[in-house]
Design a protein that fits this description.
The chain is α+β, with helices and mostly antiparallel strands and 506 residues long. The protein is built from 19 helices and 15 strands.
Length: 506
């Protein structure tokens, strides 16, 4: 008996199969071609960048200092890491990672093409690539990532990839890599990690956003270690009963561990570090992903430091602070014994402003009750700039290692009260009639300024401006000094020397 003739639908279905197979082959060939191009143009490598410094330059590109966090990104081999830590991380992230030689290429590309790359737990190789390049955005980036995974695993052994990953993975407390994390969390090397500590760090990798004092993640890793027969039942019981607070050290803020600089630059560089840390991603900062061109004039900074040191040695003077701003409130000199002496309130702001002009209030500058040396310089700068109060800056440009430069915008607002005074020649002259300015000795440079003794702080201050620069000086008397003496006159004399240094050579 012969088979019945095929129906029309069956014919259509039969005819479509060759077409589908043909299309799959075409897509596969195209995908492989794209993959080859991506691999050729963006082959990843395992070159870690430990000890990458953030370099700080002055406004003329002379090196000021290097910020170097010395406990971060310390490369380790697997033999230098406690075996239980390696085991804990593997069971938490990718238990079979070292058991396989390489990722299967066709499966990886197929997952990328079908959008399944994020539907499975990422491998160690994938995690490492994402440390360097971030998570893919869209189908094209996902396919690119897949090709990079294949390329990297063909070029490197998996234990080498694992070593690179463990040396650079972020683990909280500004620590990158298991050695830095072990020191930050436990105060010991990764070679000396114990079972509970290993499980804790592994949980930080698998769930970095989890509450650092929750036992859930740690206990899950401990259970996985027990199920893999890597720890005993008694070890599981003992470690699960240990509170996290007994396991980790108290948190401490991240510090600059190495500053290659002279002492007169310490406070201003500490301020730079604070601002950079606040504005930039931890990893970019720790790995030295950018350089900084500051507003500081290194040669002038050192000249003013020399004259200030000599002045500070005079009887009755404990410390001096000096700030020099250019005509756009970029800090050319910032000099003091400690950071707080420059940016924290030192003298009564209301009295300082009243000395300048009765109509000016602290609200004109958004000040608090006490003015810092930086703010005093800003105040006199505003007088010379017809009421323009520029945002005071320490940076001119941030240069990223990827070639992108970020210039700093120097914005300003108008202090109407000061502008009004500046526009009236007679009133402006009255501002200084009780304490007239001076002309520098070797240049015909007119300087308008005021010097006062502040009884509330027992400090004297000077504020003044030339056409090009504003200067503030705050003098702190020694404990042995009695009364105000002539501290205000001392502040003015130091300011005169500073202005002479500023205008040396024109």
């Amino acid at each position: 008996m012969s088979d019945p003739p095929p129906r029309d639908g069956d014919l259509a279905e039969t005819a479509s199969w060759p077409l589908m197979i043909y299309l799959i082959i075409i897509i596969g060939v195209f995908a492989l071609g794209v993959a080859a191009r991506i691999q050729a143009s963006a082959a990843p490598n395992l070159q870690l960048r430990p000890d990458q410094d953030v370099v700080v330059y002055d406004r003329y590109s002379k090196e000021l200092a290097r910020f170097h966090p010395e406990i971060n990104l310390i490369p380790l081999t697997l033999e230098e890491i406690s075996p239980i830590l390696v085991d804990a991380i593997l069971v938490a992230l990718d238990p079979d990672y070292l058991a396989k030689e390489q990722v299967e290429s066709w499966g990886t590309f197929a997952a990328a093409l079908t959008g399944r790359m994020d539907s499975v737990t990422p491998s160690i190789t994938q995690r490492y690539l994402r440390l360097e390049r971030g998570e893919p955005d869209g189908r094209t980036e996902t396919f690119k990532e897949a090709s990079q995974i294949v390329s990297l695993e063909r070029a490197e052994q998996r234990n080498s990839i694992l070593e690179a990953y463990l040396s650079s993975v972020p683990l909280g407390r500004n620590a990158y890599g298991v050695e830095a994390a072990s020191l930050a969390w436990f105060g010991r090397s990764a070679a000396d990690i114990e079972i509970g500590q290993a499980a804790y760090l592994a949980s930080r990798i698998s769930d970095p956003d989890a509450d650092p004092f929750s036992v859930d993640g740690r206990n899950r890793v401990l259970t996985a270690l027990y199920q893999a027969k890597l720890i005993t039942e008694q070890e599981l019981i003992d470690e699960r009963s240990t509170p996290i607070g007994d396991l980790v050290l108290p948190d401490t803020s991240f510090q600059v561990s190495d500053l290659d600089l002279s002492s007169d630059l310490v406070p201003v560089l500490e301020k730079m570090y604070q601002e950079l840390s606040a504005d930039h991603d931890e990893k970019d900062f720790v790995t030295g992903e950018f350089d900084v061109r500051s507003t500081i004039d290194l040669e002038l900074q050192h000249r003013v430091a020399d004259v200030s040191l000599a002045f500070k040695s005079l009887p009755g003077i404990a410390d001096v602070s000096v700030v020099v701003l250019d005509d756009r409130n970029q800090i050319r000199v910032a000099l003091s014994s400690e950071i707080g002496s420059l940016w924290d309130g030192q003298v009564d702001a209301r009295n300082a402003l009243k000395s300048l002009y009765p109509a000016v209030t602290a609200d004109s500058f958004n000040w608090s009750d006490r003015a810092s040396p930086v703010q005093l310089a800003e105040m006199f700068s505003a007088v010379a700039r017809e009421g323009r109060v520029y945002k005071t800056e320490l940076f001119l440009e941030i240069d990223m290692r990827n070639g992108v430069a970020k210039p700093i915008a120097h914005d300003y607002y108008i202090a109407d009260e000061i502008r009004s005074a500046s526009e009236n020649t007679d009133e402006l002259a009255d501002l200084f009639q009780m304490s007239p300015g001076f002309r520098t000795t070797d240049q015909e440079i007119e300087v308008l300024g005021l010097s006062r003794f502040d009884p509330s702080s027992m400090k004297a201050w000077y504020g003044g401006t030339s056409e090009r620069n504003a200067v503030s000086v705050v003098v702190t008397p020694s404990l042995a000094a009695s009364g105000s003496g002539n501290l205000a006159g001392d502040a003015k004399r130091l300011a005169r020397i500073v202005f002479e240094e500023l205008h040396r050579g024109g």
